[in-house]
Design goal:
2 copies of one chain form a homodimer. Chain A has helices at about 20-30, 35-40, 60-70, 90-100, 120-125, 145-160, 175-185, 250, 255-260, and strands at about 5-10, 30-35, 50-55, 75-80, 110-115, 125-130, 135-140, 160-165, 195-200, 205-210, 225-230, 235-240, 240-245. By secondary structure, chain A is of the alpha/beta class. In chain A, helix 2 links the parallel strand 2 and strand 3. In chain A, about 50% of the residues are buried. Chains A and B meet through helix 1, helix 3, helix 4, helix 5 and strand 6 of A and helix 1, helix 3, helix 4, helix 5 and strand 6 of B.
């Protein structure tokens, strides 16, 4: 007897930005598994269901349990904030399934339900920073050696990518963003716009728009629910927004008169 | 008299993956503007509203018109597929507003509504390719010189980023992905997994899982609604899925017995 396993991204933590498919999957499930903070985000949808709440850093056990429950016939939603396909639980689920020799033909159905990730939500809050090519980096070196991440920062700087940083810092993990800033300052102006968005779309949301030079003044805004967006050579700020142009000005005038005559 | 301007991402084109906020904004609007293919995606939500459908490549006129309509008191939704904050209309709206000296205090309210972009939806369909740092690149050199894009491909290759490619090719734009492949082959194995997802979550969806060596055999799957995901040195395939491990194996065994004893 086999059930279903949904890996559900509920978005930035406000139901407004959850997808219909995410809600539907949670409602269809009899069993909910997740890090307790994420489970709390969907508390109103899970009344009457069997709920397993986990503490942080128990990801391997969580993946194993979800698979076991689904194999026993349960319809299970493993919930997470954002998009489980971006630094999320999707990978560990498939790794664990692969290790166990799973095949999609076996009967255990797995569906990853994508969501609005921090890169999507934070960009929308701060303006339009992702109109050009960008690199997404996690500063967490718990599972990836710092030397590899550092090399990627250097590469992203050389390629003039806009950079989105997940997990910029924690109480114990401080130097990584500081080192990243130093590398970027070799390639970018100290006035390069930097946004720190903390708790996007939650009640506690705070937004800081600063620059590479002044970033260290805002270390109190960094943490596990913060995202940092660093502009590239084209990024500018306007009215507390971070704007990256997609080159239209090189081809068109954006002034009203010209547009009306012949865009 | 001033209205509101919503820049709405409706996700990959299937209502399931639209957010509640996107639907709400469209329903609240009296005026809908958008590229006709995108407007058709939400046909059932816009009965009775004033609808302006645009052909491709009229982005500047579209942005201007939305702003004019909102300034005249309309509640306007500029709709697009995916996330308007990723290579989308958010940038052109803010650029045009900045050019006109707009201030958020003027009364014209602008809200970017993020959505499930191609990077989110395509990753969820093909497995878990985005568990590690990744670079997002558009192959369109209509507004960005090819030399800049080429330099970024080189940087992304050097940084061992997983790479997500938007707009990989069009009928007239063929060489860019071919050149990208050649650059990547200087750094990556010909067996590096590559996925081409066309029309994600639409009825016409097709998925090809291939590798860098064989990519040219699948050029018929490239086009304006295709996304290409190229693995890095850690990416592997399993049962037609593309999996990127997040280093758990280096710290934990994923086998059931070990997990049960002490995860």
């Amino acid at each position: 007897m086999t059930g279903k396993l949904y890996i559900v991204g509920v978005g930035p933590g406000h139901h407004d930005h959850m997808t219909f498919r995410a809600k539907e999957a949670i409602e269809e499930s009899d069993t909910i598994v997740g890090y307790e903070t994420y489970v709390n985000l969907v508390q109103d949808l899970i009344e009457g269901k069997t709920v397993y709440r986990y503490a942080m850093t128990q990801e391997v056990e969580r993946a194993r349990q979800c698979i076991d429950l689904a194999k026993s016939g349960k319809i299970v939603s493993l919930v997470s904030s954002g998009d489980p396909g971006i630094y999320g639980m999707a990978g560990l689920i498939y790794e664990t399934l692969a290790e166990a020799g799973w095949s999609p033909k076996d009967g255990l159905q797995v569906e990853i339900i994508p969501g609005v990730s921090a890169l999507n939500s934070c960009a929308s809050i701060i303006g339009s920073p992702l109109m050009t090519d960008f690199a997404v980096l996690s500063m967490s070196d718990l599972l990836v050696p710092w030397e590899i991440i550092e090399k990627r920062v250097e590469a992203a700087a050389q390629g003039d990518f806009v950079i989105v940083i997940y997990n910029p810092a924690s109480k114990k993990r401080i130097h990584q963003l500081q080192d990243t800033r130093k590398i970027l300052l070799k390639y970018r102006s100290p006035l390069t716009p930097v946004a720190i968005i903390k708790g996007a779309f939650r009640e506690s949301q705070t937004v800081v728009l600063t620059d590479l030079k002044s970033l260290p003044e805002h270390s109190d805004k960094l943490g596990m629910i913060s995202t940092v967006i660093i502009g590239n050579s084209s990024t500018y700020t306007y009215e507390n927004l971070m704007v990256n142009p997609r080159g239209y000005k090189s081809k068109y005038s954006l002034k009203q008169a010209d547009v009306k005559s012949n865009p």
